[in-house]
């Protein structure tokens, strides 16, 4: 029989959000956790060194598209829940190679759902009732907002504008269908832009921070007035834990930071923090490194999350403001240059050159 001490299975637990979730879970909950990760370019086992030898933690290298592997893990570990974080997640990469996003985010979620359904249907009735499949998604499925539009709510129609967003929207729909058609007890969360320590530096904040420290141009897409709702990763992990325990099957919860910022303002704030924390830097003021580059195709103008449902029904609200979270983030990167050096070598450099060489000027 499944209990609160039974394991959970996390997919993508070596990625940015995934590794934070694993560390948070082992510190705050402490019950067994199985981490299934393919270890693509964005997966980093170094992030998980604090729990690597901890009793109850198990890492398995593998692909969510490998149905036999997933079934074997479910049979062996008998988890009480699955937290599905594994995904290709970078919009620019999806524009260059959309097929990989469809394969992982859509087909991979389908394989995982089918394996989960097979496992879940064989559980005793009481265990089927308490089991949960938590699917972690993005606000980008809702498309783009105009300046005066109301923030995204859970009832908004999907209007994805990039291959990445479309692949996540499709996976959300699959999860919904498996609940409606088969009764699988699923919960979906749609989060806003995450940031924090250990984020792979293809995303805006670590990218700009890394380049600014080295005096390199800071690429600003278009006019820089694209607005994003920023969510500190620690707040997100806490929301996921609460959604797993209190979320109602079949429901979706928007997880946002209540922190709308234009990209240009975000980069300016980051540069000001670097000026403060690196008073001897030859690149001060770092804001002079900002350089406009051609906008990317289908670039959404504004995201904003209405997270009232999560606050009302789950009792969750973010703790960090953008100012406090950004300060923590910058401090961590400056204190861990060896981590940045490791992840910014080799294949990452090749990718950066391919992407930004097309946007200069």
Secondary structure tally, helices: 13
- Strand content bin: 15-25%
Corresponding CATH architecture of one domain = 3-Layer(aba) Sandwich
Outline type: globular
Helix content: 40-55%
CATH superfamily of one domain, by name, is NAD(P)-binding Rossmann-like Domain
What kind of sheet is the major sheet? 7 strands, parallel
What gyration radius follows from the Cα positions, in whole Å? 20 Å
Under CATH, the topology of one domain is which?
Answer: Rossmann fold
This entry's quaternary arrangement is single chain
End-to-end separation in angstroms reads: 61 Å
Low-confidence stretches: none
Report the top-level CATH class of one domain. Answer: Alpha Beta
Describe it for me?
The chain is globular. The mean pLDDT is 94. It is of the alpha/beta class and 361 residues long. It has helices at 16-28, 67-77, 91-96, 98-121, 125-130, 163-182, 204-213, 233-246, 263-277, 308-314, 322-335, 337-343, 347-356, and strands at 8-11, 33-37, 57-61, 81-84, 132-138, 186-191, 193-195, 218-221, 227-232, 251-255, 260-262, 290-293. It contains 13 helices and 12 strands. α1 (16-28) links the parallel β1 (8-11) and β2 (33-37). Helix content is 43%, strand content 16%. The chain has a domain at 8-198 and 231-260 and 302-322: Rossmann fold (3-Layer(aba) Sandwich).
């Amino acid at each position: 029989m499944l209990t609160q001490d039974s394991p959970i299975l996390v997919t993508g637990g070596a990625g940015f959000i995934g590794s934070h979730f694993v560390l948070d879970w082992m510190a705050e909950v402490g019950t067994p956790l199985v981490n299934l990760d393919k270890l693509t370019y964005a997966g980093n086992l170094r992030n998980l060194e604090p729990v690597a030898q901890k009793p109850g933690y198990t890492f398995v290298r593998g692909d969510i598209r490998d149905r036999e592997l997933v079934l074997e893990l479910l049979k062996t570990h008998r988890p009480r829940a699955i937290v599905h974080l594994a995904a290709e997640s970078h919009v620019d990469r999806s524009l260059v190679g959309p097929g990989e996003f469809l394969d992982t985010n859509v087909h991979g979620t389908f394989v995982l759902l089918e394996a989960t359904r097979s496992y879940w249907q064989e559980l005793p009735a009481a265990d089927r009732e308490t089991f949960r499949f938590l699917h972690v998604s993005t606000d980008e499925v809702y498309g783009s907002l105009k300046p005066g539009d109301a923030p995204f709510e859970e009832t908004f129609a999907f209007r994805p504008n990039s291959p990445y967003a479309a692949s996540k929207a499709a996976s959300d729909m699959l999860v919904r269908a498996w609940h409606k058609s088969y009764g699988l007890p699923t919960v979906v969360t749609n989060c806003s832009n995450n940031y924090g320590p250990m984020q792979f530096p293809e995303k805006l904040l670590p990218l700009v921070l890394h380049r600014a420290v080295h005096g390199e141009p800071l690429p600003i897409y278009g006019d820089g007035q694209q607005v994003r709702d920023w969510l500190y990763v620690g707040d997100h992990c806490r929301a996921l834990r609460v959604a797993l325990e209190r979320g109602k099957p079949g429901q979706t919860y928007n997880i946002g930071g209540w922190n709308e910022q234009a990209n240009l303002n975000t980069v300016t704030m980051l540069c000001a923090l670097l000026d403060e924390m690196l008073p001897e830097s030859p690149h001060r003021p770092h804001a002079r490194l900002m350089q406009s580059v051609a906008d990317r195709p289908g670039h959404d103008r504004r995201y904003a999350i209405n997270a009232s449902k999560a606050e009302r029904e789950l009792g969750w609200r973010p703790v960090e403001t953008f100012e406090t979270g950004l300060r923590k983030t910058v401090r961590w990167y400056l204190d861990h240059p060896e981590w940045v050096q490791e992840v910014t070598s080799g294949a990452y450099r090749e990718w950066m050159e391919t992407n930004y060489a097309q946007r200069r000027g």
